[in-house]
Amino acid sequence: MASQIVELDRIALIYPSVSSLCSHSDFRHRPTLRRFAAQSNFQKIKLNLDVSGSGVQGLSRIPRGVLVNQRRRVIPRVASAELPERIDGGELADEEVQSGNQSLGKGNLDEEQREKTSQLRKRIIFGLGIGVLVGGVVLAGEWVFTVALSAAVFAGSREYFELVRSRGIASGMTPPPRFVSRACSVICCVMPLLTLYCGHIDVSVTSAAFFVATALLLQRGNPRFSQLSSTMFGLFYCGYLPCFWVKLRCGLAVPALNTRFASSWPLLLGGNTMWTVGLVATLISLSSIIAADTFAFIGGKAFGRTPLTAVSPKKTWEGAIVGLGGCIATSVLLAKVFCWPTSTLSAVAFGFLNFFGSLFGDLTESMIKRDAGVKDSGSLIPGHGGILDRVDSYIFTGALAHSFVKTFLPLYGI
């Protein structure tokens, strides 16, 4: 085989470790070696390498610029040992390559762990901030609560219609026009305000559905049923269901007579009249949902083995059972604290409904995101994703909680 002259005046060797380098047979990767050597603060020595098909055979110092006669073969590895007088061609190089790969893998794991820690820190910080803010809004009630809910509904509806227009969903259907999506977001935003002002929501929902259907039918081009169905579901999911939180918090204005906080609550903050059945039911429901999510996450991490559903592969039956237990326990505990509802069985049933509603809402949003091919509905909240990622467990729960208190509890549970 023909031989080739190779200049080896700038190869950087690392000792006592080994630099595993791979060279093409025509040795045209020498500039890469130069850049590698220039970027690394390694000691540079000039070496004469005797290379054969079996690897590196020998080493000796050579002056700068001396040319070495080599065979035209691929150099599998260039290694350096602690003593520069000798390099073993095979075993030492393999060991050092494995060590380098292990170090690289460990570095990647460390970086991934730091990223997870940073994300967890963001989740905790923003989660606590959101919790404090929501608690103050719930205590304020009336227009403060309703306006804050309307803002969240507007952001959530925008995220929903963006998911509908995403590639994963839009590839199998025709999304609604943008002007219809934006109009629906505004309509969803106004629904909670109309609920507080009018006391009911039936007329507003019917009027909104009629307006949207008319706009879709009169659009240019061929109207599609998929446009109508996705838009109507958006009005129901993002607009109609959240209004039940207004009906629960502000509509059930019956005083919670047995609540121990009512007698000692400062007059400046509303006095004892502020503690209504609606306020207590809302606080218990929100707290139970938080407990359900938290206990389900912990239980899934610790005991999760059996997948719950294909919609959300990370959810397990074990985590769901632990979440159910945590939700019911929280509902019963807060029922004892607030002295509402007076029946323990009613508190258990209320906790079960809260868990079922939160799980159903979570799975529904997971199904939408799965079809859309995205991990998060948005990026509005750092560490949490979009607004739908944060409130998906609450969307269906408000309707269940309101119906339970108003229909199944005698005298609203007082």
What report would you give on this structure?
There is one protein chain. The chain is mainly α. It contains 14 helices and six strands. The chain is globular. The termini are far apart.
Detail the topology: elements first, then pairings:
Blueprint: E1 3-7, H1 30-39, E2 47-52, E3 55-61, E4 67-71, H2 91-140, H3 142-164, H4 167-170, H5 178-198, H6 202-217, H7 225-240, H8 243-251, H9 260-264, H10 277-303, E5 307-309, E6 312-316, H11 317-338, H12 344-372, H13 387-391, H14 397-408
Antiparallel strand pairs: 1-4, 2-3, 5-6
Helix pairs in contact: 2-3, 3-5, 3-7, 5-6, 5-7, 5-8, 6-7, 8-10, 8-14, 10-11, 10-12, 11-12, 12-14
Which descriptors would you attach to this protein?
about 425 residues, mainly alpha, two-stranded antiparallel ribbon
Please provide the ordered H/E string of secondary-structure elements: EHEEEHHHHHHHHHEEHHHH
Average residue-wise pLDDT: 77
Low-confidence stretches: 1-88
Q: Portion of residues in helices?
A: 55-70%
Kindly report how far apart the N and C termini lie. 98 Å
Q: Tell me the major beta sheet.
A: 2 strands, antiparallel
Strand ordering within the main sheet? 1-4
Rounded to an integer in angstroms, the radius of gyration calculated over CA atoms is 33 Å
Structural class: mainly alpha
Quick one: how many beta strands? Answer: 6
Tally of separate helices:
14
**Proportion in β-strands:** 5-15%
Shape: globular
Short précis:
The protein is mainly alpha-helical. 60% of the residues lie in helices and 7% in strands. It starts with a strand and ends in a 6-residue tail after the last helix.
